[in-house]
Amino acid sequence: MTIGEQPEDWTEPGAHLVKPGVHRVPLPLPSKDLHAVNAYVIESPEGPVVIDSGWAMPETEKSLAHALSTLGHHLADVACVLVTHAHWDHYSQALALRGAFGSRVRLGRGERPCVEAFDPAKGLYPRQIELLRACGAPALAGRVATLELSSHERDMPWQFPDSWLDDGERVRLGAVELDVLATPGHTRGHVVLRDAAAGLLFAGDHVLPHITPSLGLEVVPSAKPLRSYLDSLRLLQGMPDALLLPAHGPVTPSVHTRVEELLVHHEERLEAAAREVRSGARTAYEVAAALPWTRRARRLDDLDVMGQMLAVLETDAHLDVLADQGVLAAADQDGVRTYAPS
To answer: Residue 286 region, left (φ>0) first, then alpha (ψ -120 to 50), else beta?
Structure first.
């Protein structure tokens, strides 16, 4: 499919044509590592529909308002926001738009436990602190426990959506029909939206062109996030290929190509984790400390606290899969999960 010309820098502000009636709108993020999130604007008879509306802050609202104005719309015209998952950089601006203009908000039903359980008084990552201790990383758990809400997070809007998106549902937006597909892994209730007729996949954070999504970073993480994620990738692998419209990164021509790369990446990480256990590592923390991280192959100690937390928990998810496969044997020793070759 021929798509509209995209800027060389995918974060460049504006409304970038994907196809007639569909535009990509990069919105700023308050993060040193991730600079923008893509919202997608779809024209509908009721008014523009936005997929993933960004982080609730004045800069986001200003960027979205400007992009909409180039399409002949105002923020108040937004009829509905469809949200792939409940992370702040996807969900919170949707709630702000609802509060200011009455736009409807829809979110995957699987996100409900996390929306219900969120309580800033319990800290940013209460469940992750428990998991880190079980991974043999008590010192890191203690550092994570000291993390506090930033100024961008403290007053974040957080409520239920107007309605839930269900797996298998078809959302009709005039001539555009979007199939809702549950793709748990990045979060337990992540969904993607597929325009089968046009060959488009609004992928949220499930399939990203340049980075591998974190797994289970949420208030109520699922027990086996990597197993869910791999199953969700294979779900897309079994469908006709489509144009990849990611939440972070440029539009790319093939979902299948990137899915294959992600499956290979995780197979390589599974093999590497198993190799470290055979070499004597016993906990997720020990395995993570032995593995390289990021495209720069950094050591665990070179990452910041957030990066270390994500690395250890991702390693634990890989070890869980290896135990499920019978490659490793898992045991509990005084509240710490240990692994050994089967």
So the answer is: alpha
